[in-house]
Each structure stands twice: as C-alpha cells, then as structure tokens.
Amino acid sequence: MGSFEVRAEGGNLVDVFNRDSAPAVSVGAGDVVTVESLDCAGHLERQRVPGEERPRAFPGRRGHCLTGPIAVRGAKPGMVLAVHFEEITPAEWGWTAAAGKDTWLTRRLRVAEAERAWLLWELDGETGTDQHGHRVPLAPFLGVVGMPPAEPGEHSTIPPRSEGGGNIDCRELVAGSTLYLPVTVPDAMLLLGDGHARQGDGEVGGTAIECGMTTRVRLDLVVDRPAPGIHAETPGGLVTFGFDADLNEATATALSAMVDWLQIEQALDRPSALALASTTVDMRITQVANETWGAHAVLPTGVLR
C-alpha cells in the first residue's frame, strides 16, 4: 500500500470537472492519499472581517475550487470506487454566507433582495465560534467528492450527479465513513474539496461553514455492492442517495436503493423490505442549494438488532 500527498497549489487546483484534465497524482487501489483543499471559493488568504474580498486561486471561478484529479489505476466504468475517509481536519477559519442572491428559495424566504449576510468563524478543531459569539461543535466533511461525467469537455461542479458523485453535501460523510461511487471514466479522475466544518441537513442558506481541509482517504475498487448508485457506510448508519430536479424523484431514488439494500442484507422480499424501512429508515433532504435536489435515506447504526 502506497502513501501520497496532494497539495492545494498550482496545477493541482481546478474549478470544473473534465475527464481530460491531467492528474495531480496516480495511485493504485488500496493506496492512501492525503489531500489539501482550499475552501470552495479558493481563498489564498483568510478573511479578516466577515465578507472581505481576499485573493483567490480562481478570480473568475466557474465553480468550487477542488484538488486533483487523483487517477486510480485500473478503475473503469462498471466498477465502484470506495472512498474511505480516514481523517478530516478543518483549517483554522471558515465562513458562511446567505441571502442577497436571487433564487426561488431566497424569494420564498423574502431575502433575495436583502444585503448578503456573512458569518466569519474561528475553528479550533472541536468548536466553531462566529463574530457574534455563537459556538457550535464541528463535524467536518467534504461537500464535493466526485468524478467527471463520461462526456468530454468541462462540466459544472455545482450539481450533484447520480453517477460519479460531485457536490453531494451530505453531513453524514464524516471521518470513518466510506462513500461508494460508480466509476464514470477510466482511472476515475477523482476530485475532492468544498470543505465544510459543519452543516445542517439541507444546507438551507446555500453555504455551510466553508473552510479549507486536509483529508486522508484510502481508495479501493470494488465490483459487487448490495445497493445501486451512490451510497455510503457511515458512523451514523447506512446511507443511500437520490439526486433530481424533482424532490419526489430524488426521494424515491434514495428510498428504492435502501429497500434494495435491506432486501439483500436481511433476505426479504421487496414488500417486506419496504415495511421494515418504514419502521427504521429516516428520509432526509441532503441539500436544497445546488440546482438539483438531494435526498438521502439513513438506516441508523444499531437500529436493527
């Protein structure tokens, strides 16, 4: 098993998905990679006051500032990339912004025309404290973990995708989790970034505590999994995902995958698996902020005995 490091600098930073991007590093299945990432905006220097403009890696950025790609030798469509999150460490500061942006949700919440609000957070590894004195426990994870679409050319980092992943924004994916992503392109070409020191389900204001991150992952390739699509094993439980412009469809996709999982793991027929899900599975809105609805189903750890 090899060990590699990818720094957040120079050609290791991108702001779009592109299957033809040159890899920052090439690794084998089972290798460990420590990845440094900037915050989603690519700040090269910390904000000194909330909302302050500071130098960025991409002054005219088109999407999230991400690190990679990481080429995984031997990966090909039909396989599943297992991303084991061994350690996730946030930087010493972060920010959250809301309102002041015209979307259907900000209009509904009556904040589309309001001045943009900013929180500036001091992060000590365990706790975040903003300029108003609010203190929250940290639960860091990466918002974007994914591979480019199979189609050539540049693709936005903003919407999550049902294959390959991307901007999933699921707060369950903390250290100790394994995320399973269907491989979309040869060598996977994995990108990581969009560190969140803490986020609520939904990411309702459009941002979390956005921060730089140092993440250690172990990458494996598998073929047979008990659930289709993107799914995860986390400290909090088993998780299945759905992504769609229609929240009903996103919810149904996530739930259907969880029922599949229960059928196999519990040796049940499908109606019985759904009945069991109705007593044990939590349905959650992953995020509302990224042009595509995200929903996830959670089978909590220890609920089945």
TrEMBL record:
Q: What is this protein called?
A: Acetamidase/formamidase family protein
Q: Name the species this protein comes from.
A: Saccharopolyspora ipomoeae
InterPro entries documented for this protein: FmdA_AmdA
- Source domain of life: Bacteria
Instruction: Output the PANTHER family linked to this UniProt entry.
Output: FORMAMIDASE C869.04-RELATED (PTHR31891)
* Xref: Gene3D superfamilies: Acetamidase/Formamidase-like domains
